[in-house]
Amino acid sequence: MTIGMRIRFSLSAASLLLLASCKPEPTPIPVDTTMESQVTPIVLPIVDNVNGVLYSIKVDENNKGKVTISELASAEFYDEPSNTALPPSKTYAGQVIINEIPLNHSEDNEYTREGVDGRIITNLKFNEGVLWTIQGDDGIPSMTLGLSNRFSQYSGSFPTVITRSKGLSFTFDENTVKYSDSVYVAISAGNKLIVKRYSAKAGTVTIPSEELSALQACTVGKPGYLQISPSSIDKFESSQGSGYFVVMIKQQVVIRSIVIQ
């Protein structure tokens, strides 16, 4: 099972728009150069050789002191098994429900739903667990898939200032990362983006100054953004011997506005 990355951008962390996908690389990932400095990147895992992906995402965003807590659900199903190098065509799967809440279906066969603190739907009940119900249609089997309420969690350090001439270090281990396979780190500044993927047990990791130097300077008034996103991936077969596989991805996304010197 090959794991890659998907990069989504939004003016708020709760509204997702797919711009690019790629395999994990040690170099900065190309992004749309029209991205403004206040746009927040959301980096999601993608997986090879599966027929569908079910994302449940908890977002904790602090943008210049404005805190937004949200829960996002996204689902997509494919005409043929996925390939991280070439995004597959999405197909219709009937009604898709998470925790008894129907997802919205778009013309390009993406299913999404959000719960945002302070709005009519404040959350998607992720604290009670995750239960997906897929009606099935057009060759997609009906499925009911569930996981416990143990969500990925990062509790380590979160710098408020990044100095480009110095390396930036984090520690990912059993004390700072819970219920996760991987941790994604993304730093955005203007039209520049650095994305890294690490094992949840990697220990101390460092993004070197040579890579940080590609970022532009950012101030408190016009900040950059740092995201740390632990995630877990569980693979399921719709029924024994069916050969139809989906993955459930549970992810915490912690985003903070930062100064870059």
For the record, the count of structural domains works out to 1
For the terminal residues, how far apart are their CA atoms? 39 Å
Overall geometry comes to: globular
Low-confidence stretches: 7-39
The SSE string, one letter per element, is EEEEEEEEEEEEEEEEEEHEE
Query: Helical content, roughly?
Result: under 10%
Secondary-structure-based class equals mainly beta
Strand fraction equals: over 45%
Report on the architecture of this protein.
By secondary structure, the protein is mainly beta. It has one domain (3-260). The longest helix is centred in the last third of the chain and has 4 residues, at 209-212. β6 and β7 (101-102) form a beta hairpin. It has 1 helix and 20 strands. Strands 4, 5, 8, 9, 13, 16, 17, 19 and 20 form a 9-stranded mixed β-sheet that branches. The protein has a 4-stranded antiparallel β-sheet with strand order 7-6-10-11, with no helix packed on it. It has a 3-stranded antiparallel β-sheet with strand order 2-1-3, with no helix packed on it.
Q: In a few lines, what is going on in this structure?
A:
The protein has one helix and 20 strands. It has 261 residues and is mainly beta. It has one domain.
SSE layout and pairing:
Elements: E1 3-10, E2 17-22, E3 40-47, E4 52-63, E5 66-77, E6 96-98, E7 101-102, E8 104-105, E9 111-116, E10 130-134, E11 143-147, E12 153-154, E13 161-162, E14 168-172, E15 177-178, E16 182-189, E17 192-199, E18 203-207, H1 209-212, E19 224-237, E20 245-260
Parallel strand pairs: 4-20, 13-20
Antiparallel strand pairs: 1-2, 1-3, 4-5, 5-9, 6-7, 6-10, 8-9, 10-11, 12-15, 14-18, 16-17, 16-19, 19-20
